[in-house]
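Re: folding output
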Amino acid sequence: MRTQRTFDPAGVIFGVVLPIAAAVLTVVSVHVWRSRLPDEIATHWSGTEPDGFMNPSTSAWTLAIVIVLVGGGCSAIAALAHALLIMRRTMLMIGSTVVGLITVLHLAIIGKQLDVQSVTQVEIPGWALGVGTLVGFCVGLLGASLLRDYRERVDADSPPPASLPRASEPLAPDEELPIIEPLGAGRVAVAVLFTILAAAAGLTCWLAESWWPVAIFLPLGVLPVSLMRYELVVDLEGIHVRSLGMAAFDYSLVEVTGASVREVEPYKDFGGWGLRVKGRGNYAVATATGPAVFVTFANGQRLTITTGRAEQIAGVLNTLSSNR
């Protein structure tokens, strides 16, 4: 059994410490530059004309609170070591994107108003929207890649029941390891999504007469793909489900108590399509109607994965687990 942790160190740093540091930076930056700022700064724009003004300190404290409550509230989930790993990674990327956007935009806004005589003609620094979104997303993606799965791991004390499917020995050609199976949206669907987003980004760039919308639409494209497309891998180590090249589920063979085949209708059985949670420890990657491999583990967790190779994968898992 793996040593139990309450908090993931990487999650604490990226999900808690960095948002708080960003909030502190927004307040400290105004304090340092206060003598060079007007009594009121532009904080809201209608088109290119500022139509909202606020005391610099009040604005900074307001944004600091938003960073902590909204951005930090999302990303702090990454610090919880026993929460579902893919949920922690997704929430960290979303929260970090919010933190990066607000922080960079704040610094750009006050930087643009240093030593100005009148703030009524100050234009919003549109580039900061793109840079802040992209920087925040990249920081979140880095933090997500460093998160680890600290769930309870328990070794099975007996082989899978003899009544469950078994693979041929030696393995047949279609059972040879590793078994790698794509799940979810196909390449055509992903290409269509990116084409739509690229067209929207291009139109926005043309209307804004700037490049910065591209930096916003990039994370908007990557995040949905991470929830639409997965990869199932079965090898001599165990069964793994990956998203964006990172583990969403990762179980070793010694944890497997059995694998069987069942028919699944995603919306009827799990209330939706994609990665689903139905009750405590009951997970599914339900991306199609039809056969699914249903795997149980010694810690009580269950994993359902829809795949046309469910019978083969169940047999391989049971055989390997019996031989462990």
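--- second protein (sequence, then structure) ---
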Amino acid sequence: MSRHEQARDTRAPGTRIPAARAAEDRTADAVQDEAADDTVQDRTVEERAAAERERVAAFRTRIGAPALIDIHTHFMPERLLAKVWAYFDAAGPLVGRAWPITYRTDEQRRLAVLRGFGVRAFTSMLYPHKPGMARSLNDWAADFAARTPDCLHTATFYAEPCAPDDVRRALDQGARVFKCHLQVGGFDPRDPALEEVWGLLADAGVPVVTHCGSGPVPGAFTGPGPIGAVLERHPRLRLVVAHLGMPEYTEFLALAARHPEVMLDTTMAFTGFAEDAAPFPRDALPRLADLGERVLLGTDFPNIPYPYADALESLEERTGLGPGWLRAVCHDNAARVCGLDRPGDGGRPRPDGSASWAS
């Protein structure tokens, strides 16, 4: 008998507790144990974040950045996020290795952690893994952005017949950045269902953060070929290649060199975790430096297996590209791309593709 059963049981010794009652008590035990685990986890996250704040503040001072703008962070409905975390916990086939979630805590605490690091603006990257999910995810994201002023309103889509309508609806709701995950979605970016979508996004001038590289494991339509074909048809598309295109770094750097609207985000690149599996080629650093105005800070917060400060310090130490380049990457470039460096009407991008929203 559990401690909860002993505390509540007033029957004479030897009297059996009915099965339903016993089941209820076992459920109460599980709920209390889970709540205790959550409390410990929350405290651990908060203690870790407090210890990191000085490191992040020192980094910002070294590069002369007033704040950080993180273009690649994940906020999503709690039930969906729990499933994502469970997938990482199980080292699923798209992960392939142990991947502990460093910032496993509730939404408000996660927001407090980012703000404590001096992150001025961030995204709520969501992605459907099957048809019929995108619209409900976009509705959630619209609500989240409305109640979270420092979140850049994020939306997504899937290769399905309703995709153009979903994207139009999200743009009408005020979406300022889109997420496309070719690896998780398992769809071809050249799918005819997406032809109108790419055109809409190119016309709107909103950045589309796209996981199109083949890390951590290749997908059926990852790599520079499929998304490169899309760019040939839609050269004005403001594609942001997530993870610097890991592990096809040089191929995606070449893609960016050919297409002036293509950008890259730094998510996980140069960290010890990524370098173990897919090291960035040091002879490609000059090319990365040359693209400095089109490189944006991304981290994958909260779904990272190391401290947030590690991502920043690794970028600093392993690139050696100096404070000016880092300041542009970690703040100035995203401020320009997302329209946070100019006054505006707070709404949609202008038809010419320039941003019109205010910070």
